[in-house]
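Forwarding the complex inputs:
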Amino acid sequence: MTGQTDKLEYDVVVVGGGIAGQESALNMADSGLKVLLVEKDLSIGGKMIHLSKVFPTLDCGACITTPKVSETARHPNITIATNSEIGDIERLPDGSLRGVLIKHPRYVIEKDCTGGGDCEEACPVIVEDQFQYGMVGRKAAYVPFSIANPRVATIDIENCILCGACERACPADAIDFTQKIEKREVIAKAVIVATGFRLFDPSIIENYGLGRFRNVVTSMQMERQLVPTRPYNNVLRPKDGKVPDNIAYVLCTGSRDITLGNPICSQVCCMYSMKQGQLLLGALPMADVTIYYINIRAFGKGFEEFYQGTRDMGVEFVKAKVGTIEEKEDGDLILRYEDAQEGEVKEAEHDLVVLSVGMLSNPEAPMMFKGGALELDEFGYVRQVDMLSNPASTNIEGVFVAGTASGPMDIPDSIASAGAASAEALSFIKRKA
Amino acid sequence: MKSRIGVYICECGSNISDYVDVEKVKAAVEQEEGVVLAKITMFACADSTQQEIVQDIQEEKLDGMVVASCSPKLHLGTFRSVAERAGLNRYNYVQSNIREQASWAHSDKPAEATEKAIRNVKAAIARTRLSVAMTPSMIPSENTALVVGAGIAGMRVAIDLADTGSKVYLVEKDHFVGGRTAQWGELFPTGQTGTEVIEDLYREVGKRENINLYTGCEVVSKSGSMGNFEVQLRIDPRGIGSGDSTAVPADFEKRLTHAIDACPVVVADSFDFGLTERKALYLNPGGLPGLPAIDRAACTRCGECVKICPEIDLDQKEELLDIKAGSVIIASGFDPYEPKEGEFGYRQIDNVITMQQFRRLIEICGERLTFGGKEIKSIAWIFCVGSRQTGALEGDNKYCARYCCTSAIHSAVVAKKRFGDIQNYHFTRGVRTYGKYETIYEESSSLGDIYLQSFEDDPPVISSENGTTTVKINDILTEEKELEVEPDLVVLVTGMVPRAGSTIGSIMKAPAGLDGFFNEVHPKLKPVETVIDGIFLAGTSQGPKNITETAMSAHSSAIKTHTLISKGEIELEPTMAIVDRTICEWCGKCSEACPFDAIDEVKEDTKSVAVVNEAACKGCGMCLPVCPVNAVQLKGFMDSEIEAMIDAMSE
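Prediction (whole assembly, two chains):
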C-alpha cells in the first residue's frame, strides 16, 4: 500500500483478527467473497494465539490457532491489514458502507523483512514485553512473538531513541524511518465487528495488592507461564524466582461485582482457572492448587465433566469470596476470605496468588462508526438487536457482530458466533444482489 | 520409489518434546534410506514453518515428505496443502503421529515414548518411499440440502440456505413446526414469546420458494455419500387437505372447530406435557401450519368429524418420497428430562411437576396461578434434576444442561410478575447464570426470591404428609443448617436430554458422545461437522443450548453447508478399494462386508468379478481382510506399503 488515495472495494470488511474475526473472514472467503481483515495489533491471532492448552479438550491453543492464522493469511480472497484501524464507518445512500482504513507505520518494509531478528539483537532499548504481559523485556526494534503472523519486525517508535543501530544491522535494508500513516477509503457491502474484549485490570482492587505484591499475578500472566513460548521456561513466582508449591486462584476478580461496575459473569474464568490448575499439577507435581469460587460455572459441552476431572485430580475448591490479600516478609501471601460453607472469616497462606480476571467490553468497537452510530448494551458490548433469531445483527443494517464484541464468550461460542455473523452477512449480501 | 524425502519432527511447543527426545528421533531417522533432510520444528503447523517446508521441497527437490507431529485427524489436511503449495503431490505426504501415540500416551516413560516415536517415524518413512501420487476425482454435487427438524434451528438453517441459493427440503416429524420453542411463552431476555419467534421464522420459510416444507415427515433411509445423498422420506397423512392452509372456504375453520368438538377420542396432550387433554383431531395452540391434524395412533375412525367437515379424509395414505441432497443437517432438537417415578417425589407427590410443565401451566392459567384446584402462593424450585448426576444423584447424565438455571429463574420471575404475591425458593447446586444472564439472577434476588444451596452429595429431600409437601435441605449458605420449606408447588428444574426414539442418528450413521447428543468432529476446528462427510449438526441435537446459542449454531451449519454444496462439485478422496480382476473369483464376501453398498458383481466373459463404485466407496478397508484370495487392495494403503511399515517398525 502506498500513499495513494483511490478507494479500496471489498465485499466484507472484518474488523479484528482474533479467532472470531479469522473464522468470519474464512467463512466469507470460502463462500467466494472478497474480504479485508483489519487488525489493530502487529499480528493476527488475537488473544487466543497467546494461550496455552485450551479447555475442555486440552488441545494446545497454538495447534488450533496457528493453522487457522496461516489459512487466513494465505487465502486468495482475504487481504490482511495489520497495525491498522478502520474509522468513520457510515452507511451510504446506496446501502453500502464506507470507512477509512488507517495503516500505522511499522517503520519496517513488510515485504522485505525476513523476521530474522538482527534488528532486535542490535537495538539497545529494552522495554516491557506486552505479549508476555510485562513479565520479561523486549527491544524497541522487535518481532512481536515467535508465532506472529506476519512474522516481521516493527519499531516501537514511542520508545525508540533513533540511534539507527537496527538500520545498520538489517541485512535486507528493510528499516524505513520515513514511513507515515496511510489512509485509504474503503467501500464494502457488509462489516463484521470482531473487536474482542479487554481484560479487566485488577490493580484497581487495592485489597488484592496487584502491583504492590509481586507474587500476586493475573491469570493471563500465569497463562503465559504455561505456554511453550513462556518467558522463564518454568513456572516461577516473580518476586524471588522460587518455584511455587501452594497456588491460589481468586475467581470473579472484576466480574459479578457491582462495586466495580461489572455485574455480569465473564463466562470463561472458572474454566480457564480449572484448566490452569490441571496444567500446574502436571508441571509441578508437588504443588497444591486451591480455587476460591462463588459458583463454578461449568456449563458448556464437556465442561461439567472437566470440573469433576479437576476435582478428581486434586485441585481443592473453597466456596468463598476473598476479601483481602496481605504479603508476608518472605513474599508469601495471606488470603482473608469468608468461607460460605462454614460462615466464618478465615485466613490461608499461599506462595502465589492468581487473580482470575474477566472480560470487559472493548470501547474501540463503537468508536469506529461515524457519530457513534453503533448501539451498545448496558455493559458496553455491541447490542444484538435480534438476539433469538439473528444474534449477529446490530442496529446498523449490514453491520454484524462476532465473538466477544457482543459479550463474554469462550472459544467454541466465539466460533459459533462468527458462524452466525458470516451466515447473516452472506445472506444479507445475497438478498441485496 | 521415493528417494528424496524430507522429515520434520515437531516439538508441538512442548507437547511432544517434554516426553519424546526429539533430537534422538532426528538422529535415529536421518540416515534412513531415502531421507535427505531431517529437521526439528517448534510448531510444524505455524505459518513460518510451513513456508520453510515449501522452500525445502522446492530447493531440495523433495519427492516425499513426513511430518512427525500430532494425529492426522488434526493436521493431515494442513500438511497436504503445504505439499501441494510446493508442487509435491499430497499423497506423497505421510503424517506420523508421535503426540497422541507416543508423548501423550507414555508421558510416564520418556525413554520408551522416544523409542516408539522413532519406530513410528521410520514406518512413515518406509510408507513414503512407496507412496504413489494420486489425483482426487471431482464428482458433481447437488446444491440441495435436507434439513431434519423444523424447530428454530432447522427453520433458521433452511432460510439461510435458501437465501444463498440452495434448494432445501425441510422435514418435520410432527404435524406442526416450531419444536420445543413453540411450547414456550415469554422468553428471556427479549420478552418475545416462543409463538412469536416461530411465527416469524415460519413466515420467512413460507416466503422462500426454494424451501419445500413437509410436516408429519420422517427420514426412512439414506444411501449415497456427500454431494449425492439419496434419501427416502415418509409423509404421514394429516387427514385434511394437503397441509396448505391458504385459500380455504370461509366457513372451513368454523366447521373444523366443530369437528374437533365432535371427536369422541380424548388423549393426554403432549404439547402441555400431559397437564391437559386433547382430541384425536387436534390443533396445537398457535400451531403452524394452522390446520388441524389427525393423530392416527389415537383415531378410532368413527367418522364423527367427517360428518361435520367432509374435507377431512380418514383414508389418506402415507406417501414415500425419494429425494437427492448434497448434504444433510440434523436439527432434531432435544427432549426435556423425564424424571423417574419417585425422583424428588415426581409422580408420587401430587404437587411435583417439571419445569417444562410449569412453563405450560403459566400459559394455561388465566388470572390466577392454580394447580390441582389449589392457588399457588409459594414454589420450591429443585435445580439440576436429570443433570450433573454425580455424588448422591443416581443417573448417567454427568453433563450440565446449561440453559436450565437461567430458564428456571426466568420462569420464577415471570410467574411472580404475572400472578403477583408468589414466594420462590430456589434449591440450587450453585447457580450458573453465565455471562449477561447474571442479570436475571440479580433481578430475582431483588424481587425477594430466596436461594438455598446444597452440596453435590447432599441433595434436597422432598416428602409429603397429610397433603403438605415439605422440602428439606442442608443449606451450605447458612452454615449447613437444615432448613425446611412447605411450598404449594414443587418444580423440578429438568434439563435437556437427547430426543428419545429418534432414528435419524442411526440412519445418518452420525455418532453420539458420552452424553448421548450427536458429536461434532472437534469443538473448535469443526464444531458443526460430523465425522460423516456432508452431515452437519444444528441446535440442541448436538447438546444443550439456549435459543440464541441455537441460532448461532444453525447459522454456522448453514454457512458450512453452503461452502460445501454450492460449488456444484465436490472433491473425492482417491483412497478407494481396487479389485484385481485377474485374481477375483466373485464370492460376494467383500460386497457383504461393505457398509456403503459400494461393491457390485459384474459378469465378465468367463467369470463374475467384484467392481467398486468409486462415488460410494469411502476407502474404509472393510472389504480387504475378508477376501479369501487377496484380490482387493486400498489405494494409498497398498499391501506393500503396510508391509514396509511393519518391517520398519519391527526392525
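Chain B has a mean pLDDT of 94.
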